[in-house]
Structures
1.
Amino acid sequence: MSSDIKSIHEFDINLICEYYSNFERQGPGSKEVTLKALSFIDNLNKNSKIVDLGCGTGGQTMILAQNTAGQITGIDMFPTFINIFNKNVQNLNLQNKVKGEVGSMDKLSFKDEELDLIWSEGAIYNIGYERGLREWRKFLKKGGYIAVTEASWFTEKRPSEIEEFWNDAYPEIDTIPKKVLQMQKAGYVPVAAFILPDNCWTENFFDPQINVQKEYLSKHKGNTPIEGFIKNQQHELVLYNKYKEFYGYVFYVGKKV
Ligand code: SAH
């Protein structure tokens, strides 16, 4: 029945949200990498308008806020993340320059040419890299920047196991030159593209999950959806360790022309 399907779906979303609320970041990244991407962006002042799309609990947003002039709005579709985001804003005393809002990256209500910088770490895949680059461009001023991380292949050929995993999870994954070309064709000068180092995945993404996974498994023994979810997470780590020379996240920074 459809109501059963809905409740299972809602349970999954709540579970995923609750699980990821345990961490400072909900995707691979690091303070160093956020700052490195920021170092390519040269047009910001105290009147600049910045948005962070798919901000999660705001790990990277707070780094941005502490290292740029301007006003930052973090947008995420999950209220649980935005609540934590806004608590982090208070704790870090950033309320005069940062706010978190619930919203969807495919229904943004900014004015044309209103923004100086669009940021999105580990999140543009939700609407797709090419679609995101194209749809969000109108909100940027001329000379404004976009900075996103995106899953990318590092090599022309890949072992079939990892190829199949990604083609199922995110078929838009592609090589770095193709992603750079897509950025150029979408109307940006590709200013930088660099690979996120391994510690963004290990220390900052997978390692913090290990203890939380243990807790979940002992707390929810016999709960098939939770056990299945944790198993998936663990499988991702196994694949990463086995195939990390073939794929990873890449930061792409572009300037609107
Ligand atoms: N940028 C954060 C979170 C990355 S995880 C970080 O790097 O840590 C991806 C985020 O995208 C999640 O927080 C998820 O809730 C959010 N998301 C997914 N679909 C979305 C949509 N349509 N609009 C806005 N946010 C979305």
2.
Amino acid sequence: MIKVSPSILSADFVNLERDIRALTPAGADYVHVDVMDGLFVPNITIGIPVVAAIRKITDLPLDVHLMIDRPIRYVDDFCKAGSDILTVHVEADTEENTLAALRRIRENGVRAAISVKPKTPAEAVLPYLPYCDLILVMTVEPGFGGQAFMQDMMPKLKAIRAYIDAQNPACELEVDGGINERTALVCRENGANVLVAGSAFFKSADPAAFVKAVKA
Ligand code: DX5
Ligand code: ZN
């Protein structure tokens, strides 16, 4: 099943409740929450209290994308704040600590996920694959919404789809960055089943039609 996860980085933060309540009628499957620390990426966004606040106003699963250094320090807090899927970057710590973070996330009853930046090769997911419920392939350099889709990530996406099918078929495969109706189709053809969309979703005049088009 194809799922759409609108990234609230492109929502109107003055009207965040309104924009989040509009996601269910638009047919969204998840709420994508981008957490940035100004270290792992050159931008700072939102943190634990905002995740907890969002938890109170939606029943949609919260798909929380941590773009922070050494995320093991904060995974318990983000789980307790109400995350349903919690994603850490493989580049953000040692393999040992990343595995410990995934274990900790699952111990909290939350779905554990890893993400890879554009320059990180497909093979980098292999040590984590048995312990993951979702893999997120970045199709832009993480840090900002509204960037151009990197089509050259498609061979990597396809390779990770093959690893998932062979080793952990229940694992979801998500893409994030520059997703619109056209690029979503390319990502689906290369094996993605969860599509994050920030600017394209929130700029759309008809978000329900946008979601339908992305899934079609
Ligand atoms: C980028 C974030 C994305 C971002 C996507 O670092 O992880 O989730 O919001 O925005 P668009 O869809 O505008 O590229
Ligand atoms: Zn994201």
3.
Amino acid sequence: MAVRLGDKAPDFTQDSTEGSINFHEWAGDSWVVLFSHPADFTPVCTTELGQVAKLKSEFEKRNVKVIGLSVDPVDSHKGWAKDIEETQGVALNFPLIADHDRKVAELYDMIHPNAEATATVRSVFVIDPNKVVRLTLTYPAPTGRNFAELLRVIDSLQLTEYEKVATPANWQDGDEVVILPSISNEEADKMFPKGYKELKPYLRMTPQPNK
Ligand code: BEZ
């Protein structure tokens, strides 16, 4: 069954390049990015894993742990990790789940048989510290993901978790945000001391409160 926004992220125990991992225990009180790959020794995945390894400090800044997955065994992952280091100039610095029996892929609906019968598609799940699924993305095998966009949406998820705002189209951290329509002008006057522009009663822009 599909894993949807607001669902509890299914727990599992599975092999990885860093030994056996119980997912919820490993996640602890961090946010998590769980992302899948079609297969080991594939070109796009090699660049994606290198890119994520290079962004480690950006994920850490946001209290995010990253974990990858493909349906190959640990020995294969370890061989591939050498290629990633050689070609991308960075060592794998997060665990890669070896989902050889497709247990996790099935739990998270990462195999889309009408696209590809056996391999996982490029799924992304962002999971909050309460283990609730907050974002899902699905890309086809030939299209590599944009990890700057992933950091951007994590910034939005974390901001809108704590402030009564939403982030408009193409928002980047530090840009103006939208006041939630459920907040009255009287409440907004108190909540947003930097002020706001009312373009329409439902469209009020304010400087990002936590900046
Ligand atoms: C890849 O993962 O690199 C890939 C998979 C399928 C088609 C093209 C590239």
